[in-house]
């Protein structure tokens, strides 16, 4: 088997596993993509409208769309490229094939962008939990809703000394817009839409409805905050329970790599036929690599819990 045949085999295996992965992850992928595209377009128009009427000099943060810096893009590509190069060297012991596989690293920023976006939204959600609790306490003490937001900002600054903390920046913007004559409902609703966090959007809907209908704002906000706190605590408990299993699944998934590395560097003569082109060895290594990738994908899919 020559080098070009190995290239072809690698491409075929990657294509097959890509098809299998799509089948496993979502059978209604096209419908889901269309729905998500419509929702994303609607959300972007809403964010554009919010930014157009904002008096702030800086663009407001759209938490549903993470903008990666150049350094983040380069670091993601380099890290993934080095990992793939090591894997390619481990399975094929051939620099050209390793470099060819390393091109996959060009897709790394897309995956990293999604991870960073979810991380930022999780941080904002946890910070909002503290802000909502402070709002509830201030309202229970008899403060008006506008003063409750001002007091909440003071409490948040005690919890988070960094002025660049997301929730502090957002509550500062809300208070500034209220001081400029905007209604607190619109200011908070704009924040909720930009947050792309379900709990914040639900809180906004309850808050606006209660404020406009003249309901018992103190009682409703308190109940809403209690529900949000319980939900976040349950999510944290689930993450703790699943984290150990995720770690175990990753260890099991990379065990074949460890075994191959151990044999390659301790018993080189024993595994040398697997690296000789023109023999079935590279085919065997390609199949092993494909099975390893598929096992990682399946294990991560099983451990992914939508909350």
TrEMBL record:
Protein name per its UniProtKB record: Tight adherence protein B
Organism the protein comes from: Salinicoccus halodurans
GO cellular component: plasma membrane
Keywords noted in UniProt: Cell membrane, Membrane, Transmembrane, Transmembrane helix
Short name of one Pfam family: T2SSF
PANTHER family documented for this protein: INTEGRAL MEMBRANE PROTEIN-RELATED, PILUS ASSEMBLY PROTEIN
Transmembrane segments: 6-24, 70-88, 94-111, 247-265, 277-298
Subcellular localization: Cell membrane
Protein topology in the membrane: Multi-pass membrane protein
């Amino acid at each position: 088997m020559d080098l070009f045949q190995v290239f072809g085999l690698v491409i075929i295996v990657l294509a097959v596993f890509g098809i299998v992965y799509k089948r496993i992850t979502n059978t209604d992928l096209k419908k889901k993509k269309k729905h998500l595209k419509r929702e994303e377009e609607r959300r972007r128009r809403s964010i554009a409208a919010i930014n157009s009427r904002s008096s702030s000099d800086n663009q407001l943060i759209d938490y549903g769309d993470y903008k990666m810096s150049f350094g983040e893009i380069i670091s993601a590509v380099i890290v993934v490229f080095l990992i793939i190069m090591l894997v390619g060297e481990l399975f094929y012991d051939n620099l050209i094939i390793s470099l060819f596989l390393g091109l996959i690293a060009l897709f790394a920023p897309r995956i990293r962008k999604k991870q960073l976006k979810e991380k930022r939204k999780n941080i904002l959600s946890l910070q909002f939990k503290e802000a909502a609790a402070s709002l509830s306490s201030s309202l229970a003490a008899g403060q008006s809703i506008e003063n409750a937001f001002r007091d909440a900002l003071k409490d948040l600054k005690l919890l988070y000394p960094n002025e660049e903390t997301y929730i502090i920046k957002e509550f500062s913007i809300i208070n500034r817009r209220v001081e400029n004559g905007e209604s607190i409902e619109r200011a908070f609703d704009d924040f909720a839409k930009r947050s792309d966090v379900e709990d914040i959007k639900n809180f906004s809907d309850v808050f606006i409805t209660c404020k406009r209908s003249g309901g018992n704002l103190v009682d409703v906000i308190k109940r809403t905050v209690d529900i949000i706190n319980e939900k976040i605590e349950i999510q944290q408990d689930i993450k703790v329970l699943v984290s150990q299993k995720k770690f175990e699944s990753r260890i099991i998934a990379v065990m074949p790599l460890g075994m191959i590395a151990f044999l390659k560097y301790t018993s080189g003569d024993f595994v040398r036929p697997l690296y000789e082109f023109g023999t079935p060895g590279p085919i065997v290594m390609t199949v092993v690599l494909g099975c390893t990738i598929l096992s990682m994908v399946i294990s991560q899919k099983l451990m992914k819990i939508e909350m």
